Amino acid sequence: VSKISAGIVALLSIVSILHYLNTNYDDKIRVRMILYIYMSQTLLLLALLVLQPALYQTTMALLVASASPLIAHYVSLSKGIVNTIVFVVFLLLTTGMAALNLCPALLTLL
Predict the structure, then answer these.
(1) CA–CA separation, 88 and 33 (whole Å)
(2) Structural domain total, the chain
(3) Taking Cα atoms as reference points, which of 94, 58, 97 lies closest to residue 74?
(4) Is the pLDDT of residue 18 over 90?
(5) Hey, is 104 helix, strand or coil?
(6) Contacts 24+ apart (CB under 8 A), 10-18
(7) 80 DSSP assignment
(8) Helical H runs in the chain?
(9) b/e for 72-96, b at 16 or more Cβ within 10 A?
(10) Which tens digit of pLDDT belongs to each residue from 55-85?
C-alpha cells in the first residue's frame, strides 16, 4: 500500500511540475518564486524517498504537504478536454489511494 501511495503522489507531482513548467508565464513573479520552492522541495523529497526508503513515514508526510500546492495549481489552472480527462483520472487515483489506505484488506481483492 505504501508503494502505491508513493507512486500516485509522485505521478501527480511530476505531471503538475511539467504543467507548471509549460505555463509559468501566466503567473506573477511572487507566485513563480513560491512554486519554484515547492517544486524543488518536491523533487528533493522524491529523491530522498527513493534513496532512503526507511524514512518513508516522515518523507511521505513532507512530500504530500510540499506537492499539494503544485497539484492544486495544476487542477485549478489547467484547461482543455485532455486536462479534464487527466483531472478525472487524478480524482479516481486519489479516491482509490484513500480507500486502500483506510482499508488495506481491499488490496487482497485486487
Answers:
(1) 29
(2) 1
(3) 94
(4) yes
(5) coil
(6) 10/46, 10/49, 11/93, 12/67, 12/71, 12/90, 12/93, 12/94, 13/42, 13/46, 13/63, 13/67, 13/70, 13/71, 15/74, 15/86, 16/67, 16/70, 16/71, 16/73, 16/74, 17/42, 17/43, 17/70
(7) S
(8) 2-23, 29-51, 56-77, 81-102, 106-109
(9) ebbbeebeeeebeebeeebeebeee
(10) 999 999 999 999 999 999 888 888 889 888 9
pTM, two decimal places: 0.82
**Residue 65 cell numbers, joined:** 504537504
Q: Which domain holds residue 77?
A: 2-109
Torsion of CA 90, 92, 97, 99, to 10 degrees: 160
